[in-house]
Structure formats: C-alpha cells, structure tokens
Amino acid sequence: MADLNFEKPILDLEKQILELKDFSAKGRIGLDGEIKSLEKKLEELRLTVYGTLTPWQRVQLARHPKRPYTLDYITLMMTDFTELHGDRLFADDKAIITGFAKLDGKVVGVIGHQKGRDTKENLMRNFGSAHPEGYRKAMRIMELAAKFNRPILCFVDTPGAYPGVGAEERGQAHAIAYNLREMIDLPVPILIAVIGEGGSGGALGIGVGDKVFVLENAYYSVISPEGCAAILWKDRSRAPEAASTLRLTAKDLLELGIIDEVVPEPLGGAHRGAEKTAATLKEVLLKHLTPLQKLSKEKLLQERYEKFRKMGIFEIEQKKGGE
User: Fold this and answer.
1) Do 38 and 67 have their domain in common?
2) Residue 144 belongs to what domain range?
3) pLDDT digit string (tens) for 249-273?
4) Which spans in 115-210 are helix H?
C-alpha cells in the first residue's frame, strides 16, 4: 500500500493543486491566486503532519514501497559498482547485495539488504529477508575488503532474517552469530546505515561497525512491532502501542546511545527526495570515514569493542534514607 492513512489529507490537496494547474493551463484561465493559496495551505499541512509523526507512523514510512533501497543509494552515491555473487557454499542470496564501488573516488566494500519494487522482484529478493547464504556471502566480501584494506559500508533494510525451515537447517543462527563475532574484529573501518527497516538479528548480521547511522524515518529494533504485540498481548493489532514501547525511532536510539547520528530526510520521507537523501547520507559517511581511516588498527578495534560493550549499561540512583 503506497498511500498511508495519515498522508491522505496531503495527497488529496496535492491532487487538487495539480488539477487546478492542469485546468488553468488548458483553459487559459488565471487561477494563480487560488493555486498559491492552496500551496501555502499544503506546506503548513505537511509541517503539521510530518512534524508530529508517531513511532508507528515512522515504521510505516520505513516500509514505504517507494522508499530508496540499497541499489538506489549505490547508484546515487557511488560509481563503478561491481556486484559479487554467492557464498561459495550453497547459493547466491538475492536478498543481500554485495560488491565493490567507489565513494568519492575511494574504493569501498558494499553490503546491503535489497527489497523488490513489485511482487515478482519481492519474491526474488525474498522481501529483503536474507537466508544464511546471504550472511555468508556478506562476510566473504567483508573479509575480501579487509584483505585489501578497503572500508566497508553496510546498508540495513530488512524486517528480519528469513525464519523458514530451510534457513534454519542451513544454520541461520550460526551465520548471524559468526558475522557478529567476525565483524567486531575486522581491521578496517565499518560504517552502518539503517535506511529502512532494521529488524532484529537480520539487521545485526551486517550491523556491527565503528559508526551506526539511522535515517530519520527508519527504525532499528530487536523485534517488529507486530511481533512484539503478538508476544506481549496476543494481539497484533496493538502494533502501534508496541512501536511506542520499543523506542525504535532514530531519535530514541540516539538518546539511548545505540547509534551515532540521525540522518535527516526530506519532509515526508526519503521517497519524496531520493537524490537529496542520498547526498545527505553520502556527506555523513564521508565525514566519519576520513578520521576512522587515520586510526591505527589497534585503536580502531579497541574503540569498536568499547562502543558495543557499553550499550545497555545503566545506573540506579540510590535514594536517601535507604528507600
């Protein structure tokens, strides 16, 4: 569903403005005043709606079918992309894209989840839910990048790793756990960008790095809101409530110290300005990549280790009077 319920007033007004412009052009009738008035009303409406989004509404935007995916960002941000296929053990998982490209002239290893634009492509990409061979393919490319001292960029966008019987039989949990262990020790800079959905172990399988960024309307969570609602309340319809409880938005994650930076999106979401979003993300990546490349291997690995070790640490304030 491309149109979201909370966007309906905006879409209706946009349609009305287009119809007036078309009518004015064809009939040669001056409607500039009416059009300008509606455009002003539209801008105010956009600011009101998108400025007060709930966590659940951000989840819906993160899942928007027109949102840019990994291949879109590679095309918009990089040059000379060469895709590499297969895990050399079982198959080529098309839910994960891997290869090498140039980012501002620098050769980088690129890994990312990839969803489809239509039913046929989504079936081929398995809706962005990777099998174990996808995570093994990702690690193969990461190790290749490390061998030639190339930084690694990971684009996270998955509802979760594929939970099917075949995936479990081929070692889904092991593949993800292996990547977690190995990524913490790779001696090259690793930058992670959550560009849409960041679902559970499926996201973590390519999500360990020196810096983690989340786009403004993306989310990053241990479980989907629907899954959380089904477990806690046996009612998936309470997903909006679960989304608020999980604190899965970029703003929440930054406050909790889970991520390093929130990447702004155009008003209304990344799909309303893919080029602008890609340019902003590219700027953020380059800003952090340069200083990371100047660190020694020992310093790089130590800071990465400390970054993840301190997650989840909290203090309990002792009340006076022994209460």
Assistant:
1) no
2) 59-309
3) 999 999 999 999 999 999 999 999 9
4) 119-125, 132-147, 165-169, 172-183, 200-204
